[in-house]
Each structure stands twice: as C-alpha cells, then as structure tokens.
Amino acid sequence: MKKILLGMALLTATAVQAMEDNDTTIINNAHKVMVITNDSLQQIKVVGKDEDKQYVYENLLQIVDTNYVSESRTYRELNAVNWKVGKKDQNGWSSNSLTLHFGLGVSTPTNVPSDIDFRPFSSWEAMIWLQFDHTPKHKLQTYSVGLGFTSRGYGIRDDKMLYKGEDGVVGLYDYPTGAASRSSRITISSLSVPFLFKQKFGHKSHYSLTLGPVVNFNIAGTLNNSFELEDDDYNVTTKNIGYRPVTVDFMGIFRAYGFGFYVKYSPMSVLKTNRGPQFRALSFGLYL
C-alpha cells in the first residue's frame, strides 16, 4: 500500500516541474520539498519559490472509504517567524512550531462611571507574542501557549484630566486655567501569557477560529498628562497609580488567508478598588 501511494504521490510531485493534460502546477526554484507518508495518507508540501519565502503549495492524497481522494491548495504563510519541527511515529505526524504574532487594535472602555468620558478611538492596544503551537497528527486543532508584551492606553476627553491626589486615589481634576493642547491617559504595560485553542475548518480551508484566556502580569502603569500653558509645554508622568498586578482577558481570533481579526474582553477593572475609576476594556483589531 505504501508503494502504491508513494508512486501516485511521485506522479503528483512531477506536476511541479512537468506538464499534465488536465492541470499543471509549475513551481520554479522551490526552497524546500517535504514528502510525508503513512499507510493511508501521502502529503507533498513545497515551501518557498524564487524570492517568495512565504509561498506554500500542498497536495494531499489519502484513502477514504477505499477510494483515493486528492486535494491541492496554495497559500502564503504570513507569520513573521514560523520554525516547525515534525515528529513521526507508526501512526503519522504531529507538528510543533514557534510562531511570532503581532496585534494592533483599538480599545473601548466599558462599565465606565458616568462622570468620565473616554475619547472614541483614543484608547489603543498593541502586542507582540511568541507562541509554541502543537498540532496533533492528522488533526485540525492546534493548542498554543505563549509569552509576549502587551501595552494598552486609555485616553479621556480634554475637558478634564486624570490625576492622582494626595490620598493616592486617581480622580478627575480641572486643567490649569488657559491650558491648551490637552491630553490625559492611563497606560498599562504587561507580560502576557496566552493559552489558545485553534480550530481549522478543514484540511483545505483558509479559515480558522481561535479562543482562549490571556493572563496579564502587569509590570508598569503610568498616568500621563500633557498640555500647553503660556507658551510652555508640560508633560507630567505619574507612577504608582494602583493598577491591578494580574488581570485575565478572554480572546477570540478569526483568521482568513493568513490575516486575523481579534476581539478581547477584560472582565477585571484596570485599577484596584478604591484607587480610582472602575472600568473594564473591550478591544478589537488586526492580528497577524
């Protein structure tokens, strides 16, 4: 059976360089060609061509109910880093990889006290994560754990500013009379540990859905106020603002053709109780 599959797969692989009557796939200067085989499956994967390092061509030949089924697809791997390591046993292959991901989005504070008015699209989120991904053999599911850096900023309208009073509590205060070009925001920086589960919609599908919690170890929090007064610029940064040291977010990612859109909600308030305004955050944006 292996010999029959291997022979048919080699005929399929020949289409990479030779002509066929019905369908022709020509890949010049392939960077890497991998052939994966077992009793019921034969897969040929070509990674890279010419100057395009992210190009991927796959051809899958398998036995389904005693019939041969062949599937082919072409796509581009858009992860900035993707080091893969395969592990084979008598039943097939599993895949482990390290992937580097970037996220950039806007944040919408929720459960906000009535006296605070956050400025639309003035709150943001940026992240960079390195993930270890494990995909069991012949499965559409991937399990991931990672470590990375996340930064979030929450800005309010310029009629008031956030300020830490003498009692150590962050509250709303008036700007000095005559102040212009006013800006006030809270910035939180975190080491993030995501625990994610990804479900692909098929071996040939370009779509997937990822869900899971993200644990944030908040390592820095500042209050930044800036304004102009009588031709002088003032930029005041306040530390020890009473942010929570650990928070947990719930994240979902929908991917299509290598691009991702994420939504993340934090059910925990940004600042500790009795240390300032209690609000949570809902964020969304691009994820690669």
Quick synopsis:
5% of the residues lie in helices and 63% in strands.
**Strand count:** 16
Low-confidence stretches: 1-21, 88-92
Element string (H = helix, E = strand): HEEEEEEEEEEEEEEEE
The amount of beta strand, in percent, is over 45%
Overview features:
288 residues; mainly beta; eight-stranded antiparallel barrel; four-stranded antiparallel β-sheet; 1 helix; disordered N terminus
Mind sketching the topology for me?
Elements lengths: L1 H13 L15 E8 L3 E9 L2 E13 L2 E10 L4 E9 L2 E19 L13 E12 L5 E16 L4 E4 L5 E4 L6 E21 L6 E23 L2 E7 L7 E11 L2 E8 L13 E8 L1
Antiparallel strand pairs: 1-2, 2-3, 3-4, 5-6, 6-7, 6-16, 7-8, 8-11, 9-10, 11-12, 12-13, 12-14, 14-15, 15-16
Describe the structure.
The protein has 288 residues and is mainly β. It has one helix spanning 2-14; strands spanning 30-37, 41-49, 52-64, 67-76, 81-89, 92-110, 124-135, 141-156, 161-164, 170-173, 180-200, 207-229, 232-238, 246-256, 259-266, 280-287. The strands form three sheets. It has an eight-stranded antiparallel barrel with strand order 6-7-8-11-12-14-15-16. A four-stranded antiparallel β-sheet has the order 1-2-3-4, covered by helices on one side.
